[in-house]
Amino acid sequence: MNNMWILAQTETNEASSQVTSKPLNEQGEAMTKVPADSNAVMTEGEPRKTLFPPWILLALMVLMLFILFRGPRKKRQEQKKMVQSLEKNDRVRTIGGIIGTVVDIKGDDITLKIDESNNTKMHVVSSAIGKNLTKDKS
User: Fold this and answer.
1) Does domain 55-137 match CATH 3.40.980.10?
2) Percent of the chain having pLDDT more than 90?
3) For residues 135 and 81, what is the distance between their CA atoms, to the nearest angstrom?
4) Hey, where are the domains in the chain?
5) What is the pLDDT of residues 41-59, one digit of tens each?
């Protein structure tokens, strides 16, 4: 197929003119572009519209990150609050499953009595305390 082009000059005003080109079909008539969808309007300079604009995708990612990091941060805060409220003679369970009674608290070091008959004591860090059994019962 021979591609032939026609140059058409249009007058916009007396001082300037605009030259456009259109492809010709085999009969020498100017061809026009037809959109695939018969109801669609096709324009030359208009960019193609996307399903989701980039700012919506960015907002969704920020929301997902907020939701993703909110849960663990909230649990850390609750655990820190629980450890700060520990007092002597509280029954606690460590994250390893050891149940004992708080004997002494010195900063980050907590001394637990785990056996009453042998007076067995154990030193754990405050982050190892999983649950305060005394406070949860009442």
Assistant:
1) no
2) 50
3) 12
4) 55-137
5) 555 666 666 677 888 889 9
pLDDT on residue 9: 47
Distances, alpha carbon 62 to alpha carbons 53, 56, 67, 69, 73, in Å? 15, 10, 9, 11, 16
The two three-digit tokens of residue 62, written as one number: 């920020």
Beta carbons within 8 Å of 16's beta carbon, 6+ residues apart: none
Spatial contact of 9 and 17, defined as CB atoms under 8 Å apart: yes
Write the CB contacts of 21 (distance below 8 Å, at least 6 apart in sequence). Answer: 5, 6, 7, 8
pLDDT in the model for residue 41: 59
SS (H, E, C) 1-16: CCCEEEEEEEECCCCC
pTM summary value: 0.52
